């Protein structure tokens, strides 16, 4: 019996070693040569991207996310009449359309799914609101059951990203210059506003995306206008401001606009993208007090890095360069988190990468 179990484990190991490829989906803008969502095979040993195919025809699928089991993909369609599309992942990695529902706002730019996989939220940049959906058993979306509207005064709202964390929901609003916190009301089964500003932001910072540590004790907000990362530590009422740290090289003097932010899997390193300087900023993170220290600014070998991602092994970073129509691949040094450029793959208007 033990010998049979050994042979089974050995065969699984050999199969995984023989096939180090994993799927990468790419969201694009379709106002040029792109047709929708593309799929590549990514080699987690060499960093190579191969076997490009059109996974699904879709209009401006500018942000993508998986269901927790990775059986479904959700995309926002960034148009004046904003919509969200749901897809089933097929055995050949193509995506079969399930349904399309309204975001009830213009130009949705971000979508995320909660940990249990039964809710999704789409952020409408021009609409200034966010729509929350329930997800059916077949992966398709119901129409939104709640719309969180930030257009309540003369300050223009630009909801830019949102994330669920347990019973909390955080929404980054670039126009309102704040990160909103909502909490699930279990009785009414909807989300109630707790605070429109979980942390003190500098004037005209422009919070765009953010990363939370797994335990929710620290938050890192990347600011499009200020070209900074705002770091915060959780308190009873929100987050205590730790510091604001520049994402730009000290010698850079031109115009630049931050885009995306991600923590490494071990949360020892933090990364941010700069559109204009066209660079990735690398930070070493102190896990005990949450502070960060910039250690590298490296060219993205392209123009206008919008979104980036780390591969499942944590050994590689891939960057979507919107204006230069290419995806850059970097090797990550596991000791210090720094990046080394490997190669680039052409694709029209890539703006979102999903492993």
Automatic annotation (TrEMBL):
InterPro entries: Cycloisomerase_2, Haem_d1_sf, Lactonase_7-beta_prop, WD40/YVTN_repeat-like_dom_sf. It comes from the Bacteria. Keywords: Carbohydrate metabolism, Glucose metabolism, Signal. Gene3D superfamilies: YVTN repeat-like/Quinoprotein amine dehydrogenase (2.130.10.10). The keyword Signal applies. This is Lactonase family protein. Pfam families: Lactonase (PF10282). Belongs to the cycloisomerase 2 family. Residues 1-18 form the signal peptide. The keyword Signal applies. SUPFAM superfamilies: C-terminal (heme d1) domain of cytochrome cd1-nitrite reductase.
């Amino acid at each position: 019996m033990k010998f049979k179990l050994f042979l089974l484990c050995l065969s699984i190991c050999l199969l995984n070693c023989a096939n180090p490829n994993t799927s990468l989906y790419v969201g694009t803008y379709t106002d040029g040569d792109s047709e929708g969502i593309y799929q590549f095979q990514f080699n987690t040993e060499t960093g190579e991207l191969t076997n490009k195919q059109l996974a699904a025809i879709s209009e401006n699928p500018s942000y993508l996310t998986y269901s927790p089991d990775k059986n479904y993909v959700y995309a926002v369609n960034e148009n004046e009449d904003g919509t969200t599309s749901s897809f089933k992942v097929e055995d050949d990695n193509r995506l079969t359309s399930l349904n399309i529902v309204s975001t009830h706002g213009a130009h949705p730019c971000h979508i995320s799914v909660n940990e249990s996989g039964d809710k999704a939220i789409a952020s409408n940049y021009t609409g200034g609101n966010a729509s929350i959906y329930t997800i059916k058993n077949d992966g398709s979306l119901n129409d939104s059951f709640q719309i969180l509207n930030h257009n309540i005064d003369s300050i223009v709202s630009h909801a830019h990203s949102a994330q669920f964390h347990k019973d909390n929901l955080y929404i980054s609003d670039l126009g309102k210059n704040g990160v909103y916190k909502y909490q699930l009301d279990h009785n009414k089964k909807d989300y109630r506003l707790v605070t429109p500003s979980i942390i003190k932001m500098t004037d005209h910072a422009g919070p765009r995306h953010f990363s939370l540590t797994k335990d929710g004790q620290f938050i890192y907000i990347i600011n499009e206008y200020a070209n900074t990362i705002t770091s915060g530590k959780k308190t009873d009422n929100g987050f205590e401001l730790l510091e604001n740290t520049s994402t730009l090289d000290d010698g850079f003097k031109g115009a630049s606009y931050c885009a995306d932010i991600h923590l490494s899997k071990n949360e020892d390193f933090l990364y941010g993208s700069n559109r204009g300087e066209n660079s990735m900023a690398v930070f070493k993170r102190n896990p005990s007090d949450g502070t960060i220290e910039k250690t590298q600014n490296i060219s993205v070998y392209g123009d206008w890095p919008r979104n980036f991602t780390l591969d499942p092994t944590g050994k590689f970073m891939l960057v979507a360069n919107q204006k230069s129509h290419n995806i850059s691949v970097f090797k990550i040094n596991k000791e210090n988190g720094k990046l080394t450029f490997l190669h680039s793959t052409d694709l029209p208007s890539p703006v979102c990468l999903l492993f």
